[in-house]
Amino acid sequence: MIERITFPDTRAPGKSLSLRPLAILDDAHTLHPAQFRALHHWLARRELRIARWMIARFDVLLPQEALAAITDESSDAVSYPGLKADRETETILLQSSGPRREQRTLFRKIAKDMSTRYLRRMPLLSAKNLVSLGDLLSDDVTRFPPSKVGELEAKVGATQRRLRISDARREALWKEVEEFRAEGDLVSKEVGLAMLSIMMHRYDKRRGQPSMFETDDDPEPTKPVAANTSVLESARLHLLHEFDRPYYYGIDDLCDASSENAEQFLQLAAVLVETIATQVIREKGASLDPRMQNKLLRQRGEGIIEGWNFPHHASVRRLVTKIAERCVTVTKQLNGWLTPNAYGLEQDVFDVLAERQPELGRVLQFGVAYNAITLVPHYPCKGKTWCLLELGGMVILKHGLTLRRGGFLEGRMHELLGMMQEDES
């Protein structure tokens, strides 16, 4: 009935402005799914001359529709008789989707701007010009005391003896660590020792089984053992689990742990800002040290998970907990070969998951809707294409997993079904 609204342009006498109305239907997820689909169909008909936008939670979709919305191309969208969905509708996902590196970089920028606006509205901090959250989150980790360094050195020595690694090979591996540190990746003594231990175990794996006729007690590995960012990441995670050394600190870690979700970022940032404000009131300095950041973020992540109260939350919690526990087990392996935070299914298996296992599909749908899981479709690795079930930031914080992306455990659909079930005990 209304196609356009025309009115005089006060900035240009004698001319008029013609505007096309936009109808926004908010909270469409409150409809019954059948009503939702009928409304979607009606709004997409070309007889309606005004622009229209329907906003809904992920919950209202059927499992196969919800998972397909993330993993399929727009050309695969569901069409109705007389309606070609990829031509008549444009789907905009508020969940993370698209190029992941660009997303993470963009979200960091947005989140930092949000935090600055937030701090400016706090008289206690803005009066002291404390409006940059990144400047208030220290990244200067306290070094291990001599007693702990001695304990770590003793463990490295025991590893060398157990693996029968020569002094010359140990020196060569330590030189690799030293050269890596000289390239600009500054690491403390304890991190260097943890890296050395990992490299010893990698060397042991790569030198193969010695022959009974072998005379060389220091054989060359089948593949060079080098100090790199992979070894550094494994070392930091090993120290987190074994010595509770801070791992999550700094503004970038805060942003990345939020899984590109503004609400989760504010929930995590709030607990840090409250602690900073308390320190300012008590005149203890505004900067928050890495140990306190790590402690507060992990506690907050666990608290958010315990507070989940959405549909199927118990099954989602069981599923992500089992995946996380498996990831922790692999992360703690002595050769640090992988630091996973995701579970991978082959893409063709995932494509039929919702149809063959609708209950599992529903659980994954709500896991995605409430940021417990992020789907990463069409991920190429080892000559195959995978769909990764990447754990959300809160799960990563609680269980002490890496924030770096790409590492995943290869899995099967029946294993996911088993994880989702409640333990008999």
How many DSSP-defined strands? 8
Order of SSEs:
EEEHEHHHHHHHHHHHHHEHHHEEHEH
Q: Helix tally? A: 19
The percent of residues in helical segments reads 40-55%
How many domain regions?
Answer: 3
Q: What does the overall shape look like?
A: globular
Contiguous uncertain segments of 5+ residues: none
Strand order of the largest sheet: 6-7-5-8
The amount of beta strand, in percent, is 5-15%
How many strands, which pairing sense, and closed or not: the largest β-sheet? 4 strands, mixed
Termini separation (Å)? 63 Å
Our Rg estimate from Cα atoms comes to 27 Å
SS class: alpha/beta
Mean pLDDT: 89
Q: Could you give the topology of this structure?
A:
Layout: E1 5-8, E2 16-19, E3 22-25, H1 33-44, E4 51-54, H2 63-71, H3 85-88, H4 100-120, H5 123-126, H6 133-136, H7 146-163, H8 167-182, H9 189-206, H10 229-243, H11 251-256, H12 262-281, H13 290-306, H14 313-331, E5 342-346, H15 347-351, H16 353-356, H17 358-369, E6 373-381, E7 384-391, H18 393-399, E8 409-410, H19 413-420
Parallel strand pairs: 3-4, 5-8
Antiparallel strand pairs: 1-2, 5-7, 6-7
Helix pairs in contact: 2-17, 4-12, 7-9, 8-9, 9-10, 12-13, 13-18
Would you give an account of this structure?
The protein is an alpha/beta fold. It has 3 domains: 5-88, no CATH class; 146-243; 309-425, no CATH class. The protein is 52% helix and 9% strand. It has 19 helices and 8 strands. The strands form 3 sheets. It has a 4-stranded mixed β-sheet. Helix 4 runs parallel beside helix 12 and helix 7 runs parallel beside helix 9 (189-206). The protein is globular, with a radius of gyration of 27 Å. The model has no long low-confidence stretch (mean pLDDT 89).
